């Protein structure tokens, strides 16, 4: 934990066991680590956790923090906002992001910790992506006639959701939304387009940039240094 430890201890002093239990639904039978961990998650909200990276001088105003996170992380930062005034720090602001659905179905989030639900990784080849997307859960009926008669559940259709997340062309997205919902496009066409979008707008550029990263780049990026100008 290193430099962050004093801030973690300070947060732990501010948090009551009752608040942590009520926020996370802990029981008396849970191990003490579950009660202690929220302070570790909360501490990076405050610049004091990074004294060598966010170097501050006496009298400097506190730095503000914005946290992009999924909604399931919100309880941690609710606690952070509660303790911030007592720590004489700014309460963190949150930017909630949506879950990317797993290929198995929109009720699952795509996560490397649950690969059985179907994930696309940044290291996948184009062929691997296309194979995976072809097997993704579809929100349409069994036949094109079923789709035209009953429509498509776009919220449940994983390929459509991939297009919605990653396609930068709003006109194309609107066209797919209109045609697919009316059965003028079938699932195979949408899956093929989804694979195109993921490969072209996510994987290709990232993999090319990743190939250009050197050991010196990694050392520079991960080195402990002040990042304030």
Automatic annotation (TrEMBL):
Example GO molecular function: ATP binding
UniProt-listed GO biological process terms: tryptophanyl-tRNA aminoacylation
Keywords: Aminoacyl-tRNA synthetase, ATP-binding, Ligase, Nucleotide-binding, Protein biosynthesis
Enzyme class: ligase
Reactions accelerated catalytically: tRNA(Trp) + L-tryptophan + ATP = L-tryptophyl-tRNA(Trp) + AMP + diphosphate + H(+)
GO annotation, cellular component aspect: cytoplasm
Domain of life: Eukaryota
Enzyme Commission numbers on file: 6.1.1.2
The family this protein is said to belong to: Belongs to the class-I aminoacyl-tRNA synthetase family.
Official protein name in the record: tryptophan--tRNA ligase
Organism: Trypanosoma cruzi
């Amino acid at each position: 934990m290193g430099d962050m430890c004093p801030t973690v201890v300070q947060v732990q002093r501010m948090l009551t066991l009752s608040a942590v239990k009520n926020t996370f639904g802990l029981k008396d039978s849970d191990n003490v680590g579950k009660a202690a961990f929220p302070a570790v998650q909360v501490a990076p909200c405050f610049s004091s956790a990074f004294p060598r990276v966010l170097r501050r001088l006496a009298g400097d105003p506190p730095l503000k923090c914005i946290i992009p996170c999924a909604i399931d992380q919100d309880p941690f930062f609710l606690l952070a906002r509660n303790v911030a005034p007592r720590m004489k720090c700014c309460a963190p602001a949150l930017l909630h992001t949506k879950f990317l659905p797993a290929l198995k179905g929109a009720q699952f989030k795509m996560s490397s910790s649950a690969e059985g639900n179907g994930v696309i990784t940044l290291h996948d080849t184009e062929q691997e992506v296309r194979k995976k997307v072809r097997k993704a859960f579809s929100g349409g009926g069994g036949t094109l006639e079923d789709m035209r008669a009953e429509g498509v559940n776009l919220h449940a259709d994983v390929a459509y959701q991939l297009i919605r997340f990653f396609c930068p062309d709003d006109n194309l997205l609107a066209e797919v939304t209109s045609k697919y919902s009316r059965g003028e496009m079938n699932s195979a066409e949408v899956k093929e387009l989804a694979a195109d979008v993921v490969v072209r707008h996510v994987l290709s550029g990232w993999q090319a940039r990743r190939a250009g990263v050197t050991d010196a780049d990694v050392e520079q990026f991960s080195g402990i240094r002040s990042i304030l100008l």
